Every structure is written in C-alpha cells, then in structure tokens.
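Q: For a teaching session next week I want to show students how multiple molecules come together into a single three-dimensional assembly. I've collected the sequence lines for a complex. Could you give me the predicted structure tokens for the whole thing so I can convert them for display?
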Amino acid sequence: MSPQLPVPVRPPNPRVERAWYVLCTSRELGRRPLARQLYGVPLVLFRGAGGAAAALVDRCPHRNVPLSEGVVEGELLRCPYHGWRFDAAGRCKAIPGLAGEPDRAAHAALAHDVREQQGYVWVWGRAGEPGEGEPFRFRHADDPQYTVVRRKVSADASVHLVAENALDVPHTAFLHGGLFRSDADRKPIRCVVTREADRVACEYVGEARPSGLVGRLLSPSGGEVVHFDRFYLPSIVEVEYRIGAENHILVDAALTPVDDDRTDLYAVVALKSRIPGWLVRPLVTPVALRIFAQDQAILRKQVGTIQRFGGARFVSTEIDLVGPHILKLLLRAASGAPSPEQPSVREGTLLV
Amino acid sequence: MSPQLPVPVRPPNPRVERAWYVLCTSRELGRRPLARQLYGVPLVLFRGAGGAAAALVDRCPHRNVPLSEGVVEGELLRCPYHGWRFDAAGRCKAIPGLAGEPDRAAHAALAHDVREQQGYVWVWGRAGEPGEGEPFRFRHADDPQYTVVRRKVSADASVHLVAENALDVPHTAFLHGGLFRSDADRKPIRCVVTREADRVACEYVGEARPSGLVGRLLSPSGGEVVHFDRFYLPSIVEVEYRIGAENHILVDAALTPVDDDRTDLYAVVALKSRIPGWLVRPLVTPVALRIFAQDQAILRKQVGTIQRFGGARFVSTEIDLVGPHILKLLLRAASGAPSPEQPSVREGTLLV
Amino acid sequence: MSPQLPVPVRPPNPRVERAWYVLCTSRELGRRPLARQLYGVPLVLFRGAGGAAAALVDRCPHRNVPLSEGVVEGELLRCPYHGWRFDAAGRCKAIPGLAGEPDRAAHAALAHDVREQQGYVWVWGRAGEPGEGEPFRFRHADDPQYTVVRRKVSADASVHLVAENALDVPHTAFLHGGLFRSDADRKPIRCVVTREADRVACEYVGEARPSGLVGRLLSPSGGEVVHFDRFYLPSIVEVEYRIGAENHILVDAALTPVDDDRTDLYAVVALKSRIPGWLVRPLVTPVALRIFAQDQAILRKQVGTIQRFGGARFVSTEIDLVGPHILKLLLRAASGAPSPEQPSVREGTLLV
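A: Of course. Below is the structure for the complete assembly, covering every listed component.
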C-alpha cells in the first residue's frame, strides 16, 4: 500500500455476504413480522416455533407480495394476498383452496440462518445455507461491574466509510472540535497498526488524556492512557480506552449494511469508572449523540460527493492508519479469496 | 404449462400495441385538449371537425413542446410555443410567420385512429395506421332493464397483474375476508378453463352463493349460482354471476396500460335484480370500492417487491386458474405471433 | 442544413469545456466558500490571496468531502472533515496530524482558471489548464450614459434551448401575446443571417416598431427600427434594438451550463432613451420578468417532453433563423473540430 497514490475510482461497496449481521434487537421482534434489508435485499423477521427468531427473503414465492405485510399465525407466517403460510425454514405449509400438497420445493420461501444472543438477532448474510462460526460477542455487555448503554443509530454511508470514520483519530480535532481534541499544541505519538487475517488494530502509545470535554468527564484526575481502535470482519468497530487504573471504556458497534449507502449501527458502550453509572450516563450520552450527529452529517456529505462524481477517489497519507486496512479486509472478504497472510505490524507517527 | 415450476424473472410487461384502448370517457373530452398516456407515450386528445374525437402524439414536431398545453381553435389544435396548428389527422395547417406552405409531411404530428362509442373514446395503440376491427362493446351498458354503474379507477400495476387480480378467486377469502368469502368450511368445486385464440374463460361449477356481504346483498334468498370469469385480449376483464333466475350481475372493465406499472380501469357494472336499482346502487357501490381499494393496496405492494428485486419470479399452482393464461395471451399478442391454436379446455378443483 | 428534414434524436447536450463561464457575481462571493456547478461538476469558489477569486473542483482529494462545506482561513480553504487546507491553485498547504510535508501532487485539489471583471467571476471550463483568450465584455455595462439593469435568472433547459428561445422572434406573438407582438396584420420583412466561426447574427430589415407594450414603452413616438439578434460561442446571447436616433437597448446574457438541463443567465440590460432611467427601470423590469417567466415555463415543458420521449426530435423551417446555427456552432465547438469556414450569409423572409 502506497498511501500517497490516489486510489482509482472504485466499483460499488464490497459485499461480504458470508457473515453474521445484526438485523434487529430482540425487543424489536415481537408478535408482528418485521421488515428489514440487508445489502438491499428485503428480509422479513418473525418468531416461529417456540418464539425462535426466523428470517425469510421478504417475497412470497407465489405472487411476490412482501410477507412482512402478512401476519404470524401460530408458528407460521401468512401472506396477505392468498394466505400461503410458511414456517421458519421457509417451507410452505398451507395453500388455501388447493386440494393437493402445499409443501413442495417450488413453493418454499428462501430462509436465512439466525442466531439470537445478548439481546440481538443475528442473520447469516446468504440465504439457503447454514451460518458458519458464531456471531460476535460484546465484551462486558452483561457485566454488572460496568455501566452499559445500548443504542441503535443509522448513517447514510457504506460499512467501509462508517467504520473508517468511527476509528479515525485525525478528524476529531476538526469535526468534533472542543468535544474531544483540539488542533493546537500537538505532540507526536507512536501508532502501532497490526493487521491479521480478519481484523486490524491500532494502538496509540504515549497519548495524553483527551483534552476536551469527553476526556475530562472520563478522567477528571488525568492518568496514563491506553487507547486501541479495532475493526473485526465483517463489520465490528471497537474503541477501547483505559485511563489510569480505574477507568475503562469500551465502545463496540456491529454495523449492518442495509444497502450500499445505508448502515445501521448497533452500539454497546460499556464503562467502568469511579464515577457512578447514574452520573456518567446522563453526562456521556448527550456528548456521544452530538459526536455521532456530526459524523452522520459529514458522512452524508461525503457520500453525496461520491455519488455526484460517479465514484470515490481517495488519497491516503500515513496518518490514515486504519481506514485503508478496513477496505482491504472488506475487498478480500467480498472476493472470497483466502487470507493466509501473516500478521503485519507497522509503526507510524501521529501529531495529536 | 407446468404450474409448479417457478417462472424465471421476466422482462418488462408485454406491450400489445395493435389494439383498441379506452383513453377517456366522452364526458372527459370537452373544449380543452386532454393529456393522456398509453404505454408511457404521451398523447393529446381533442375534438376536431364536427366535434369528432382525435388523438395525436403529444409532442409538437417543431420544438417538442406538449400540444396538450395548447388550445383548440376551431377544428385545429394550436401549439402554445410558436402557434403551429394541427388537424385531427395531425396535418400542419398553419405556421405563423412562415411565408410558404405549412402542410408538409415533415411538419405533421403523429396521429392515432380513434373510435367513440357507448360513452368512451377508444384509441388504436399504434400511431399512423388505421385501427383494425372494432372496440369491445359492453353488454347491457345501455340496457334499460339493468342498473348500470360506471366508474373509472386506477391501479399501480401492469395490465397483466391487474387482470389476474380481478379474475382471481382464491385471494378473495383473505384480502377481502368477510366481504366475499371466508376461509372456513371449504368445499371442492369444479372449474372449467377454456382458452381460445383471444380469450380465456373459467366457469365455476357447483359454487354456493358467496357467503359474505356481497352474496347476501345480491341474493338474499340464495339460489343456484352460475359464475364465469373471462379475459379478452388485449385487456378486458369480465366477471359474470347469475344467482337464481332473477339476479344477473355483469362486471366489465376495459384496462388501459398507462405505462408499465400503471393501469386505468374503465368499469361498467350492469345488474338486474329483484331489488330496485335505487336500493342496490347505494349498497353495492361502497362495497365494490372497498374491495377495489384493498386490491389497489396489494397490487402496489406486489409491484414494489417486484421492482426491489429487479423483476418478477412467480410460481403458480393448479388453482391459479386464469392468471397464467392471461400472461400467455399477452406475450403472444405482444410478439405478434399468429394464434392458430384450437381452443383448449382444462378442468380443475378449487376449494371454496 | 435542410430545414424541412426532421433532425434525428440527439445525444445529450454538447459540452463546450474550453471556454469562459460566469459562475457568480462578484458580490455573491464573500468570505464564505460558494458551491456552484458547471456541466454538472461541483465547483467551490472562494477568495484566496489578496481577495482574488479562485475555483476548485468541490471534492477534497483525501476523503471526497465537499470543500464548499469548509471555511476560508486566511488565504486557504479548509476541509471540514480532517482540516486539510488548499490555496487558490489547489495546492495542499496543511494536513493536521501529519509529521511530513503536505504539499505533494497527490494531495492537490483540481483548480480552474479564473478571471474577475465587470462584477462577474468567470471560470475556465476545464480544470488544470490556463484559460485562453479573455471572457466576454458587456458593452455599455459601465457606461454612465446608459441605464443598466443586471439580473440573474435560471432556466430548466440546456444552453442550446435557452439561447434559441432568447433569440427567436416567431414565438413572441404567441407566448408573449400582447406584450410584444401580435398575430394579426403580419407584413413580410427581410432577415439577413450571418454566421462566422464563433458567432451567428440575424438582422431584421424593415421591421416596424414592436406593436405591443414593450414597443410603446421604448419609443412612444415610433421611428425607424434597427434590430439584431446575436449569439457568440460558447453561450452569449445578445438582442439589440435602435429605435429612431435616441433609443438604444442592448440585452446581453452570459449563459452558464449548470448541468445538461439547467442554465443560469447573467443578464445585463443597457438602455439609452429620452425617458429618464428612474422612469424606464420600474416600467421595463416587470415586463421583462413577465416575459422571462413565460419563457421559463415553456422551456420546462419542452424539456419535460424531450425527457419523456428519450431525446429531442426537432423539425425546422426557414423562419427558425438562429436556433439551428446555434446548435451547429455548439456541436462543432464541443467536438473540438477546427472552424476554418468563411462567413456565410443567407437571406429569408419572416412575416411579423
């Protein structure tokens, strides 16, 4: 990777289909079917036998009406047009008016594999095959020692652009000026980027406590800072801070590619601090939402420009520490190529 | 036709151009030009010499302004930009400012053949050629023994999908549950489908009086039911019921392909019953409009799904009695292939 | 050119890139960057060193955010995402956080050449090359003997269609009926069309004073009329009237192709008359705006029809005196072909 050369205009965003994605929270999925999209493909989620979450392609095989407009009857999802009924595996169990057997291969709806854990419904990205491995587990999401905040937000940009934005340090002094860092009195720190087959991490060594409001909230008394930014395939972003011995903040978000230019973020913020949770929560939440609103706005402008010019043309420098690795990981995963490579470690300098 | 095999994704809707279509009612066409579309092509209708209805392609040959934005002056339609004037045949009769002869072939607007009958203006679907045959005649539309209701409605779907919906029995128990039929206590009836070169008809033998509100309105005392659903090329749907000796209901609709996903329906309901017309009309009309609103909604969802998936992929069963035949008739008519075939007759069973 | 033959459907509008276009007035460009478009390409204008106007392609080379959303700091334009700073030539002068040199070719934004004169900011249509020649100068724009009115208006049509409309006489009797000319009592006049390598002009010989409101305002007492309509490549339209010895009206407009179907017009009306300026201005302005509103409306309808039919198909007659020449000039300039031809002169007759 030669960061000074302009990347040529790229084709649409890489699609990593053989992976787990959060399609909704457990609470969102009740008695009624739920319409969602993954990479632009409409899916319907519902609870079948025993309340188990299920996901079908949201198109009745008969006359292509969306099944999400139907109702759940017992364990079956019923189409609103002719009343065909489907189970969690997509099998057709009833065709009203038909004297013969309804359950034939041609009458089946396409099904996606599903896992439900930690309050999230994860769906395998490709229909008609069993999911591989297990979905990502959020660390400390269920840990009583931590204050945990869960939020779902959306951004009008691809997984790649959202993930790069989430793990990018240099923009914080500008876009979030005052909240985070400032553009004055910069000092060099060492950055260690480690890329493995399915992830990339950047450690910032020697960083001072963030000078803005966020830093003061987290650690009023200062202290040594340990800071990692991490990305895991296909779409997990993680920011981890330890400030002194007592403060630990872990922000994870599972990114769902709704379509090429829309991403849902299921975020879990886990925080351990001397400050009690009931105090931290009302202080941190509005700041976090303000930061995210600024990121949403800049991503929307970025995507608007990319669309107007018919494609992206990025140029990177050595302080674009994580973003280009994310794109490489996504492109290789989308192509299905094997990833036999050894971990690579690279060091750089960032003025913060 | 193997009804259990999925039909592959189809190209856009078949276009049957060499046919008559209703473009407006006689009452809609007054002193002002009227803008309409047929298969997505803008047309302008106006009344020329002696009040005769005329139809031109809605584009001035000079600078491509829509003629429908102009005015009718005497027998001529005048363009609003430079004032060129056209007669019912599209001939250019005046070019203001030009010293020479305006009436040249290059200055002519394209004209469509027109017939006006039974209160409707029918237009031949291809410009520049004489229409063949005569437009469809609505039975009993002018019969004083019948109560006749005329309605124009629109649906956001192709002629094929609208016609299939109009002539499909199995969906009525679900989509129109309670109004028509119900999903309980089904009994088998025999269905006889007859396809000829330009039409398909289905007779339902042994049907009980529809159990819902519509049936009770039509025939409070019950009686033997004779029920036919028919489709005539290019786009006429017909539902006929006789219940007992005294009740006859005939619903015809001429379908106009406004564009690939919009259809206008010019419907004529003719009804003979013991109940007097002044009583039937206010009872039947709101029920019919309710049924049609439900059909409009499901068609919109169906078309939305087809568009999101980039094409239709239908699977049919033996109780899709009429729809697949409609598509076959439309595809053959659109291709211009001859239709030498003998009538085919097929029987099936439907639980109603 | 055989004016009676229909021109076949044309590809999108010709793009003449190697030319000067007005992108804004001098007053519009203040301390904040200004977003504009030229042939659909987003540009950002700002004032750099010494207040000199500058124009860059409106896309940060780093992550493709629009620079027009940033701010001007000193002589530099700063991107709102990561704070990269660019000078008027597009050179990157700062990359916050980067220890190395920011000013590399790969980090530069694309710049357009700029001239500012007579209160307008002119931009060369192709990035990365010096502009050739000088922008058009408006005659009498700064002449104290003239009453001068400047207006910016927009039309939803290409430069070709707007220019043809502006210089077309025959439509005035219809579209602007009563304001300008009328359709009654027409008399023939002689028209002399002269086309040169970069322009076309039409002189109307023997024209009576325009009979409508505009004519009466300009010259209450009548007098001999001298009338020229002119087009200069790439996009200047000019209408000149002299009525008697004392009245001179010169309407110039520089047309800017915002995109294929949008044109901005920077108009300068210069008027010398016995009537004092303070009296002429409030009389002429509302009439001119009324005329322009009618032209905007008809252009919008024309473009709508062209889009619905998938392209333009024009037929011209001998009284389409200027429009076909404008199209020929634009097509040749867009193709980059040399224009060695001798001036051509042609005469015709127009009934006015």
